[in-house]
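Write out this protein's structure.
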Amino acid sequence: SRMYFMLQLLHKPSCPTWVAPMSLGRKDLGVGVLGGMLYAVGGFNIDSPKSYLASVEVFQPANNSWIELSE
């Protein structure tokens, strides 16, 4: 099993902050921040590199969770 994580680099760059895992591991994705939430858009499925993802997941820091938006 793989572990996916993000690092919080604002306050203590040397101390990683673990967040909830996404539903799918992604690579070569687009990201953006809007309204205090992180959006992960498209990319390729890490487990199936030729499989393009058309989905969007949103990280909500207030409750440490990801929600998948409809395609």
